[in-house]
Amino acid sequence: MASGAASPRSPPAAKKRAVVVAGDGDDSDVFDRLPDDIVLVVLSRLAANAASPADVASAALTYVAAAAAALFFLLFPLGVVFVRRGEEISHGCARGRRCRRFRELATHPAVLSRASAAAVAVRWGAWSEAAHRFLRRCAAAGSLHACYFLGMVRFYCLGSRATGAALLGRAAGGGHAPALYALAVVQFNGSGGGKADKDARAGVALCARAAWLGHTPALRELGHCLQDGYGARRDAPAGRRLLLHAAAREHLSWKKHNHGHHDGSAAEDAVSRFMVAWWDSHRAKAAARGCLPGEHGDGEHDGGEDLRLCSHARCGRRETRRHEFRRCSVCGAASYCSRACQALDWKRAHRAQCAAARWLAAAAAAADGVAH
Question: 189 and 336 in contact (C-beta within 8 Å)?
Fold first, then answer.
C-alpha cells in the first residue's frame, strides 16, 4: 500500500453516549422539561415514604433535591445521563418560576393525599399555625392519617369536638384502624356529651372492625368487653383468646419496632405523644401561674371543671366532662379511658401503685381505729 494513502481504521468500540440537554440559549433546565405528571409521581412517592413532616415541608421550599431524585429514580435504569450545559442560574425570573411551579406541585392534593403517618406526625414542640394549616390541607386532600391526627388533636386538645369527631369519622370511613378504635373509645365514654350518650354496642362494633383490620389495642379492648359482657354477650373463653392474640401481636410489634420496621400503630403513638406533651405543657403553665388543678388555666375549654387525664402514661386522652373515665375500683385514684389502657397500666405501673395505696389506706384506717 502506498505510503501516502491513509490506512483504514477499525471503528471504535461502542460507548455509552451522554444525552445532552442544552439550554437552547434560554434559562431552561432539566426540571423545566419534566412534565407535571412525572414530578407529581415522584413527589407522591416521597410523601408516602416520608419519615417526618420535614420531608414534605422541605419539598415545598426547594426543588433541586426533588428534581435530582426524579432524574435518578426515573432515568438511571435507562442508563441515560443528562448533562446541562452552561452556568447554573443563580437568581432571576426563571428560578422564581421554577420555585413557584414546584411549590404548587408539592402541595398538590395528589401529593398531600399520599402523606404517610410519619409525614403528618407533628411534634408538640413544632406545633404552630403553619403546622395546623399543613394538616388541614392534607386532610382536605384525603389523607386518612392527617384526618386521624388532626381529629384527635381537635377533639381532645383544642376542644373542637364536632370537627374532631367529623375528621375521625372520615378516617374511619376509609378503613383507618386507629380512627375506628378512637371512635369506639368515644362511644364507650360518651365523650363530648353526657352519660346518656354512651353506646357500648356501637363501641364494640367499632372495636371489632378495627380488630379485624389488625389493630392490637382494639383487639385487647374487644377481649375485655367479651370477658365482662360489656356491650356484647359475655363469652369469657373467646375474650381470653382475643387477649392472648393481642399479647402475641404486641410482642411481635415490639420486635419489629426494635428492628426498624413500623406498622400502622405509628400514627397512634405519634398522636398520643403529642397529647401527652400538650397536657404536660398546660399543667406546667398552670403551676407557674399558681393555678390549682381544676381551676381555669389548667387546659383549654375546661369550663373550670376538674377533668382528669387517662392514667396510662402513653395515652394522652383527657375527660370531656367530670367523672367520664372509669376509675380503679380498688384505690379510686387512677382514671382510664378504656379497659385496654387500664390493663396495660396495671401491668406497667399501677399494680405497685395500687398496692401501696391499699397499704396506706389500711394503715390510715388502723390509725383511726386506735385513735377512737
Answer: no
SS3 content of the chain, % helix, strand, coil (to 5): 60, 5, 35
Question: Where are the domains positioned within the chain?
Answer: 19-111, 144-271
Q: Which residues contact 31 (CB under 8 A, 6 or more apart)?
A: 39, 63, 67, 70, 98, 102
Task: Give yes or no for a contact between 181 and 202, defined as CB atoms under 8 angstroms apart.
Answer: no
Amino acid at 357: A
Cα(326)–Cα(310) distance, integer angstroms: 9
pLDDT of 301-334, one tens digit each? 444 458 899 999 889 999 999 999 988 888 878 8
Question: What SS3 state is found at 121?
Answer: coil
Which class is domain 144-271? Answer: mainly alpha
E-assigned strand segments in the chain: 19-21, 82-84, 326-327, 335-336
Measure Cα distances from 265 to 117, 128, 148, 181 in Å.
Answer: 9, 24, 12, 11
How far is 165 from 148, CA to CA, in rounded Å? 9
- Identify the pLDDT of residue 365: 61
Q: In a 3-state reduction of DSSP, which class is residue 63? A: coil
- What is the C-alpha R_g of the chain? 29
